[in-house]
Amino acid sequence: MLYLIGLGLYDEKDLSLRALEILKGCDEVYVELYTGVFQGSAEKLEELTARPVRILFRKDLEENPEGNVLMNSRNMHIALLVPGDPLVATTHIDLILRARKLGIETKVIHSSSIYSAIGETGLQLYKFGKTTTLAFPEKGYFPTSPYDVIKENLAKGLHTLVLLDVKAEEKRFMTVKDAIELLLDIEHSKKEGVFTPNRACIGAARIGGDSVIKAGTAEDLRKEKFGDPPHIIIVPGKLHFVEEEALEMYGLKG
């Protein structure tokens, strides 16, 4: 049996009682920390579970899960701990499909996710459109698709959750300031009026833990400090009056 267990949004204290019960009965426990930011540590997880916890990297799960989490899952109880909710990242859907092709039973233990936690901003969840991820530009690679997603959602009056790049193995985490400057650069190139300095935005950090949420124009938020990762930004669409009141609470001027 392979268990995919969500760590939640902050640290090891977000593990559910069900998750802890399962973990204490597992033969092997793994954790991946590259798809999100985890404020706890493998050492603290070991204290809670009374089990050794092995850290896996991207290449371990994406290239050779048969050499780690899948190796003994047919005859033993194996757990993979995942930041947030296990099925938000596509990596783990692929892992389940590989397991089932090998005749390995799987079970998911869900946990808190950014997709529900963004309700803390005061925006209504059913009014969000397509989510997008803003990646760090690399040599010869500067994706502009997040700009297009924001444009499409705004045309429908929908909010856009923009997830920001996490390269945990390199200790590189995109900030609200980085994201706004990248989107302004794309605006400068495309000139479609989608993301101007006056665009209303929400910047947030560490939602689910010691949350920091601020609302204002893009130009305002690029000057704000949000502290440690993970960060996200939200570009709101058409606002209900209750949403307007909530964003005023976070600093957005009417």
Determine the CATH topology of the largest domain. Methyltransferase, Cobalt-precorrin-4 Transmethylase, Domain 2
Distance linking N and C termini: 54 Å
Q: From the 3D coordinates, which CATH architecture of the largest domain would you assign?
A: 2-Layer Sandwich
How helix-rich are the residues, as a percent range? 25-40%
Tell me the CATH superfamily of the largest domain: Tetrapyrrole methylase, C-terminal domain
Mean pLDDT: 94
Could you tell me the number of beta strands? Answer: 12
The SS-based structural class is alpha/beta
- Shape annotation: elongated
H/E topology pattern: EHEHEHEHEHEHEEEHEEHEH
Q: For the record, what CATH class of the largest domain applies?
A: Alpha Beta
Report the major sheet.
5 strands, parallel
What is the gyration radius calculated from CA atoms? Answer: 20 Å
Number of helices: 9
Portion in strands = 15-25%
Low-confidence stretches: none
Describe the strand arrangement of the main beta sheet, using strand numbers.
3-2-4-1-5
Total count of domains = 2
Describe the structure.
This protein has 254 residues and is an alpha/beta fold. It has two domains: 2-112, Tetrapyrrole methylase, N-terminal domain (Cobalt-precorrin-4 Transmethylase, domain 1, 3-Layer(aba) Sandwich); 115-249, Methyltransferase, Cobalt-precorrin-4 Transmethylase, Domain 2 (2-Layer Sandwich), CATH 3.30.950.10. The chain is built from nine helices and twelve strands. The chain has a five-stranded parallel β-sheet, sandwiched between helices. The protein has a five-stranded mixed β-sheet with strand order 6-7-12-10-11, with helices on both faces. It has a two-stranded antiparallel ribbon with strand order 8-9. Strand 6 (132-134), helix 6 (145-155) and strand 7 form a beta-alpha-beta unit. It starts with a strand and ends in a 5-residue tail after the last helix. The model has no long low-confidence stretch (mean pLDDT 94).
